[in-house]
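queue> holo job accepted (fe (iii) ion)
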Amino acid sequence: MEDLIIGANVTYRKDTQLLGSVEDALRYNCTTLMFYTGAPQNTARFEIDDNLTNKAFELMKENNIDPNNVVVHAPYIINLANNMSIDNFNFACNFLKQEIKRCDKLKMNYLVLHPGSAVKLERNVALQNIVDGLNNVLSESQNVIVCLETMAGKGTELGINFEEIKFILDNVNLKDKIGVCLDTCHLNDAGYDMGKFDEVLDNFDKLIGLSKIKCIHINDSKNEIGAHKDRHENIGYGTIGFDNLIKIIYHDKLKGIPKILETPFVDSETKKRIYPPYKFEIEMIRNKKFNHNLIEDIKKYYK
Ligand code: FE
Ligand code: FE
Ligand code: ZN
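queue> job finished
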């Protein structure tokens, strides 16, 4: 199996499920993948078909994708941080419990979760709610590891620096069921200098420990460092830049950790974002050479 574990955020449809997701990933020449078990922005979910899961595992085996590296992303409307409406908080906890069950049924190891937003609560109160929520949800018997994603700091998001992530990790009881997902765009937007990634990683290591990093989202950013915006850009076309992202992707200390692209689809002539960039971005990453014609190549290929 090749060294580089690179994948993309692929779709998961009700009729084809994991099998369809793996087929999508193979079209982009991925060696791993990430998917939501339904729409990212809502919590409508459906029964998992084991037959499709088994076929997906066979297809992964034939194509040298290690299922241990596949990542699931929880829908981003789950908010464990705010309990001003106890109904909403309970709903979030229950949904996450169900999502963990789905991950275990799909035999997936990692579930990425946005820590949450404080809304009108004080940040330290909201962080404690996340801890309480996770302590309520996580169980000894689950297999999947919940990976808290580092956030950009849009609105009242939590988990926008390593100290906040550390607070949650330190106070969760079941330590081996919790990890971290770094997102390069979010780190940049939160104020970390991706041009000095070794320092950023050292800082993380001292506070939390590198062994907690289970997944890395590789995205360029449309905005300047510290902008707190969270708008992803295609690899090499944003403020982080191609060389800095390549250094992160091939970093010695991050070997064996799945890297996932969540970069924007390319506009068609009708201005609808319909063309997935992943196949061409992964090609650039493998060649370690920036493609100045990326957008044109994508449009030509899918036309
Ligand atoms: Fe995310
Ligand atoms: Fe992300
Ligand atoms: Zn983002």
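queue> The longest helix spans residues 86-105.
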